[in-house]
Structures are given as structure tokens and as C-alpha cells.
Amino acid sequence: MTILVTGGAGYIGSHMVWELLDHDEEFIVVDNLATGFKWAVPDGVELIEADIGDQSRMEKIIKKNGVDTIIHFAGSVVVPESIENPLKYYQNNTANSRNLIAAAVETGVKRMIFSSTAAVYGNPVTTGPIAENAILNPLSPYGTSKLMTELMLRDTANAHDLNYVILRYFNVAGCDVHGRTGQSTDGATHLIKVACEAATGKRSSMKIFGTDYDTPDGTCIRDFIHVNDLVNAHYHAVKFLRDGGRKFTANCGYSKGYSVREVVDTVQRISGNRFKVIESERRAGDIESLTANCNRLMTRLDWRPQHDSLDTIVETALAWEKNMVSGSLAPEIADIEHTDEVA
Ligand code: UDP
Fold this sequence. Notes:
The chain is α/β, with parallel strands linked by helices. The chain has a domain at about 1-175 and about 225-250: 3-Layer(aba) Sandwich (Rossmann fold).
């Protein structure tokens, strides 16, 4: 039983790699290294440099390695970028996923776990944590590109012997609690990464996008989930499908929201650096408040969070950021040419 991890050299994918190693699973990684890093895949793990959109190559890789489960992370993840460049998102997240799903069907892969997003909900019409049966109304090409893949998976599973778990991530943050991997992509846009870069001096200031939202402190609210807990949810999803689970969609978060300002304050407190914060205009595509109802994940996948504290998220993110600055954990980082692309 071999698992294929797509995007395993990226931020979340490389944490999945360590989760699978910790559980002695057999697996391979496919990554085109557009935004991932070779060094993020540990020695001894097979990394195949390939594009998931290349259906015939993927079929060969799947057959050669006896893959029976795919955990599919590869894709692009920045909401504002998707508004500026929608076709990139429909290519990377939708069209390429279509070809990967086709390769899975052609080769008889029985199980797929797909990284989706809370962005499929758009602006929630009800207040409080959102459940999976809420209206799906994405407001960005990013959200739409992921929803389209959700629908392709659903329809394909109805027609073929393919079962799936779709995990809708809320805001993934933090880095491996053992310091083995972390969020390394250059040109960061995500809040906690940006704040940690400000705290370690990589940037001189940061902006808060929008302080006039209808929230207690006027800034947006998000549900941040520690990346180790998120990849552990994927491992539970693998077991669920192996045990005969079929078509299942679940939110991934902690059912608790923090405002952008609370997050920035936490990074300042833990780092001891009161870096400059500029209050700025709202950012296009941002949703006011997003928190997850995670009952399905807990009850059906038997998942329990282990690191559900904003302090832990920030501490691990800061630790990684500091190590990147000093070069002690990932010394090769300085030698790698970065693209401007963020995923
Ligand atoms: N945000 C911010 N400054 C930044 C980055 C993000 O104020 O430098 C805000 C952003 O406007 C949103 C929240 O932080 O309200 C989360 O944004 P992020 O890009 O981290 O994730 P998203 O929720 O868009 O997937």
C-alpha cells in the first residue's frame, strides 16, 4: 500500500511527509518544485519531480509504485493572487486536479484525500462556526477553483470506484513542533508568516488590511489550525478510507476565531519585538469572519487537536522563522533561487 503525496515539498505537504514517516507508512512524493523545496523532503523519501497535470506521466508513476491512495496538496493558495490571475488558479487547482483524478481512475486508485478550503463558503450567511452543509458561494477564483475540484471528485466517485475525503482548511499556520520542517516560501502573504517575518526583521513593518469590519476590534476573524494537527487529520482520513469510509467532507479548524489584531499582538508579545504595524485599506476578496464547525472531523474521523493554542502556533512559526534567518535548520535555503510565486 503506497501513498502518493502531491506537493510534498511544500509547506503543508512537507509536514504530511513527516506525519507519514512517524507512522511508518510507505509513500512517495510528487512535486514540480515550482514553490516547494527539495530539501523539505527528507533523505530516504522518494521525490519525483513531475507535474500532476501530466496525466500519462502520473499514470506511469502510480503504476510503477503501486499507489493506492493519493493525498493531493499541490496547488496555488493565495486569494488576492487568484483575483489578479484567475487562470493560473483554474489551471493549477482545477485543470491539473482533473488530470490527476483521471490518472487515478485509469490506474484504479481507490482513495483520494483533497486539500480544499473554507473559501468555498464565501461570506457565511449565518453567524458563528460554519458547518459543511452551509451554502457554497466562493468569492474568489481560489475558492471557486477548489470547489470545482470538489465537484469533480464527487461526480467521479459516483461513476467510478474512487472514494474520497475532502478537507476544507480554515487558516493553516505554525510549523512542525519538532522543528523538522516549516513554512519557507519566499514572498509570504499569509498573516502569521508575515507577522513572524516582521518580528525577525526580515521585513521592516507589516500591514493590517481593514480595521472597519463589523467585528469587536474592526479586523477580520480567522480560525487558525496548527499544521501538525491538520496533517494528522489527513492521516485519520487515510485510515477512514482504508476502513471502508467512502465520500466524506469535513472542515478543519479549531472552532475558535482570533482577530487579525489579536494575532499581531500575540506575535509581538511572544517575539518581544513591537515591530511597526500599518493600518491599511481592506484587501480584495477578504471575508469578514470565518470559523469552522469541526464536529464532523471529530466524530467521524475521530480526530482530536493536540496543538490548539494560538501561542503554540506562533511559537513554532517564530522558531522556524528564526532558524531560517540564522540558517541553522535549512542551510541550503540561502542557495536556492526563489520565484516570486507563493503557494
Ligand atoms: N492580513 C493582514 N495583513 C497581512 C496578511 C493578512 O491584515 O499582511 C489579514 C487578511 O486581510 C485576512 C487575514 O489576515 O483578513 C488572513 O489572511 P491570510 O492571507 O493569512 O489568509 P486567508 O484568510 O486570506 O486565506
